[in-house]
Amino acid sequence: MATQLEISQPTLRLPLTPFKNEPLTDFTNAENARNMKAALTKVRAELGREYDMVIGDKLIKTTEKIKSVNPAHPSEVVGVFQSAGREHVETAIAAASTAFESWKRTTVEQRAALVHTVACILRERKFEFAAWMVFEVGKNWVEADADIAETIDFAEFYAREALRLAQAKTPVQLPGEGDRLMYVPLGVAAVIPPWNFPCAIMAGMTMAAIVTGNTVVLKPSHDSPAIAAKFFEVLQEAGMPDGVVNFCPGSGSTFGAGLVEHPLTRFVAFTGSKEVGLDIHLRAAKTQPGQKWIKRTILEMGGKDSIIVADDANLDAAVEGVAQAAFGFQGQKCSACSRAIVDEKIYDVFVERLKDRVAQITVGEPTENKAMGPVVNEKAMKSILEYIEIGKKEGRLIHGGGPAKEAGDGYFIQPTVIADIAPKARISQEEIFGPVLAVIKAKNFEDALAIANNTEFGLTGAVYSTSRDKLEKARTDFHVGNLYFNRKCTGAMVGAHPFGGFNMSGTDSKAGGPDYLLLFTQAKSVAEKLGDAPPLEK
Ligand code: NAD
Asked: Does residue 2 sit within a domain?
């Protein structure tokens, strides 16, 4: 472990090459499949270990533990973790505050080098990280690979973005003056991620914070602390000084809420449900005794995402896109399609074809790369099954409709399609976060757009149509943060599709985009009358 400001990673060779997305792995290639199987064997042998909480340079054990289990086999323990409570808030924030005093004085090149080194290490250990996700949250190989590729993308992208931000210029230089704009760090961040992109979102928010000079208390989700622990090890290996990121698994409602409320917390980077996001918003808004700033919150929350299928759509593409976006990773993506809004002229044929396509989806063991694995935990399973029962009353069951018992003893649910759902029905409005798709009939394209916009959310959406006029109407009127035409509404790529939602889907922070790091900094303008002091060397 490195001590304060001993940054031991190699220095950056500048300029960095232009950013390129990490390629996704083709598992039909025999060598890739072999590598993945070998990684699964390696990780399987490491399951069940206990991990320390790390605050500053201290390794901490708590009496209470968090057990992370494999959702495909709930009796299999992935790892045992310490559980931070309210009593750990003070120490964690103090460690991050102390580290901030020196970390904020590092150069942007040093910080970008750290994050770039993280990308290099992760690239070497891609299969291993994917294997951890297969065991801990039930991703199949393809989904797990996409998650680690996105993590590498965030690292590479934010390293470059931090360097770019450091070159910012004021739009005007007054004659006789040196006018400069500096993006300086904010302070201590509470980073609170969800379990569903257990690597990419957790690591993305953390790296955005540290590359801009902030320090972090990282509280991973109860359901995915192992992946966060592995990522934390990579930060250490890359030369991160103690206290820059503090690894603190713990309860959201006690430790998480305590972090948000602490007067020395400068900002909160959160991704998760609407309910928790709004609670954080409220808590962070209340000024605490001794607090010197208005806390900033970056809140990315839930979705109820629609794909519109117009009467002139390429039906094969639409059926495929809807099936993939609704059932990829068991529908547990904030971007997942949970509503297909279909023009009445093609409704019946679309539903028939979708039914045939969904019938081909296999449910089972994620280690064997089945199309659909388990949902994340028992509570999620119960809630999703309840929604399915509500849906059966609200519409016509087309496929699925219950647990997938034949898949094993884990939390497996059949891919479920319910048609003839009214636009304001509960399963058309509430985030289910599971493999449940509502199909809704629209009178025409205008009606479809009105239905698509009728929820409180505004995260992703897609339109399948061959009409330029329809697409242009959707471009202006479909009110979501991430809109796609003639492709599915999941699978945002760093750099190409900056990600974040409108309305109750969050603060639209646009992760993976050119504006993201601004949220982790504050701009300082410095104007100097030239001539009185020697000129700046750089
Ligand atoms: P969640 O809101 O239950 O938990 C998210 C995190 O908040 C966890 O680390 C949890 O421990 C913590 N937490 C819980 N209560 C807290 C409190 N009172 N104070 C502080 N922290 C607290 O969400 P989840 O089940 O982990 O993730 C699924 C949700 O995340 C879905 O709603 C999904 O749509 C959303 N999500 C959104 C995006 C996006 O970019 N908009 C991306 C992924 C997931």
From this structure: no
Which residue's alpha carbon is at the smallest distance from atom 18 of ligand 1?
253
Q: How far is the CA of 301 from the centre of ligand 1 (A)?
A: 7
Rounded to the nearest whole angstrom, what is the distance from the C-alpha of residue 218 to the centroid of ligand 1?
A: 14
Is 244 a member of any domain? yes
Same domain, 66 and 160: yes
Residue 489 annotated as catalytic: no
300 labelled catalytic: yes
Residues 266-322 pLDDT 10s: 999 999 999 999 999 999 999 999 999 999 999 999 999 999 999 999 999 999 999
Helix (H, G, I), strand (E, B) or coil at 410: coil
Task: Count CB neighbours of 187 within 10 A.
Answer: 21
Same domain for 351 and 245: no
Q: Is 45 in a helix, a strand, or coil?
A: helix
- Among 523, 104, 93, residue whose Cα is nearest residue 290: 93
* Atom 8 of ligand 1, nearest CA residue: 221
Would you say residue 530 lies in a domain? no
Do 348 and 264 belong to one domain? no
Distance CA 305, CA 503 (A): 13
Number of structural domains found in the chain: 2
289 and 147 inside one domain: yes
pTM of the predicted structure, to 2 decimals:
0.97
d(CA 306, CA 506): 17
